[in-house]
Amino acid sequence: MESFRSLAAGAARDTHARFGRRLAGLPGTFIGRSHDRQDDNRHIRDLGPWNYWWQAHYLDAIVDDAELWLASGERLRAMQEIRRAKALLRGIFLRNLGKFPNAFYDDMAWLALAARRLERLTAALPGQRAPLASLAVHQLGRVLAAAGDDRLGGGIYWNRSRDFKNTPANGPAALLFVRTGRYTAARALMQWLNEHLFDTARGLYFDGLRLKDDAVDLEPAIYTYNQGTTLATLCALGMSEDLTRAADLIHAIRRELADEHGSLPISATGDGALFTGILCRYLALSAGDRRLPSEARDKAAQMVRSTALTLVERQEIELSAVVQRWMIFNAACRLSPATSIPNA
User: Fold this and answer.
1) Shortest CA distance to 177 belongs to which of 278, 128, 109, 108?
2) pLDDT score at 47
3) By three-state DSSP, how is residue 199 classified?
4) SS3 89
């Protein structure tokens, strides 16, 4: 029997071996290659496609590993992953031309969330603080705080063009705000999402509202990751009505998005190859939240386990898909009791 912890550890090794490297050979840096292919010109490769938010989730997955190793008493292995996480954040900073902000508010929210987790983890360990993570949280948090206005009653924009307000930006920004103690700002974004982008028929969150001249067009797509960030924010806000909404959202995800076995859809390419990994991360957290009804927690756990089982034999060639597979195994590791699967 092979445990999900073993699968997660194997996925981490595979990801680092095939995709991880120093940025332009610089000591103390780390970065993820976008595709599983070699290029004879290292500098062209390093300045190739820049997927900022893929790197943010790579960082999140490394922090997952550090936390899981610490929980199992493997302190040396946890310290190794903390060093890797710090090097990756440094690599992101340098590859992004010596700054953390970019043109997309959703990208910035994702990196800030990962940096916040690294900041909190290292603050609890003697001699392991991560000042660059603190800088990222501070700088990106300030940008996100100014990313909205009163058009359409509130909410923040997707990017600096400021013509689209969507769940991919508001969800992670709200979660960042509540995790950094800005509860009023977090609740305002969550209230805006509930009023403007919640599909009452399906119980899920739409993609966004596009502004063009005096017109407002709904983008009605339903994406897995949008349900994950809203679920996490509702649980983090934690009032009775928030928790009721969170439980209802879990039931809606199971009913509307999962197959008959409880498995969630998986994409193998592009940005979409991270969507279900993000949802599974937050389903696993909600499965351990004792404030939620047991039926909702059980459904959340079952979806994570079922989805993880579909990935055991998959081989991916893009960083986004490889990180997603690893994230989902890590999510399954957080469930209790631990699950083992038969050897293939």
Assistant:
1) 109
2) 55
3) strand
4) helix
Cα-based distances in Å from 233 to 59, 164, 176: 20, 21, 9
Mean predicted confidence (pLDDT) in 104-128: 95
**In angstroms, how far is the first alpha carbon of the chain from the final one?**
9
Q: How far apart are CA 344 and CA 342, in angstroms?
A: 6
* C-beta atoms surrounding 162 within 10 Å: 15
Q: What pTM value is reported for the model?
A: 0.95
Cβ-Cβ contacts under 8 Å for 272 (sequence gap 6 or more) = 223, 320
| SS3 state at 20 | strand
H-helix segments, the chain: 4-19, 42-46, 52-71, 75-95, 105-123, 131-145, 167-179, 183-196, 224-237, 240-256, 275-287, 294-309, 319-333
pLDDT at 36: 82
Q: Are 306 and 266 in contact (CB under 8 A)?
A: no
Tell me the per-residue pLDDT of 223-242, one tens digit each, with 9 for 90 and over.
999 999 999 999 999 999 99
The whole-chain average pLDDT of the chain stands at 94
Rounded Cα–Cα distance for residues 208 and 202 (Å): 16
Residue closest to 30 by CA, chosen among 49, 55, 5: 55
Would you tell me how many other CB atoms lie within 10 Å of the CB of residue 135?
Answer: 15
Among 40-44, 57-61, 198-202, name the one with the lowest average pLDDT.
40-44
**Alpha-carbon gap, residue 102 to 52, rounded angstroms:** 9
